Amino acid sequence: MNITKDQLKKDPRTDDCYRTTILSGQNTIDISLNLDEITLDKMIALGNSFLEDFEDKEKNATDEIVSAFHENYNENWADEENGYPVLSAKEFRQKLTITAIAFYAKDLIDVVYNEGGMFGNHYLIAQSYDGKTFDDTTMFG
Known about the structure:
It contains 3 helices and 7 strands, in the order E-E-E-H-H-H-E-E-E-E. It has one domain. By secondary structure, the protein is an alpha+beta fold. A 7-stranded mixed β-sheet has the order 1-2-3-4-5-6-7, with helices on one face. This is DUF2262 domain-containing protein.
């Protein structure tokens, strides 16, 4: 998978964002390149650098999501009666699907997950501030 200029579409809602999609297995992932004092060529290079090692980066981002939210889910959100049983870390991980990757500035990357309804259909986001490691998370929605 590689991002090229000819596959990008300018986001009509903003002047500084370009979008495309990639296929990872059976899943389509929305990619956004948000230019903030960085050229489109440099942002494409950042995106492609991330995608070159996608399996490893995906694992690192997902590890951070599991670390941050698995216990929280089991303690506060699991509800056997409504179809949300307590899950092992492996089962929790299997419910996560990457839906989007947003590239910002020169090293800020958000990997956005659909959480399969475990948290009331919020998005879980793994964040990298150096373009390589994921050491922060947030829930959105």
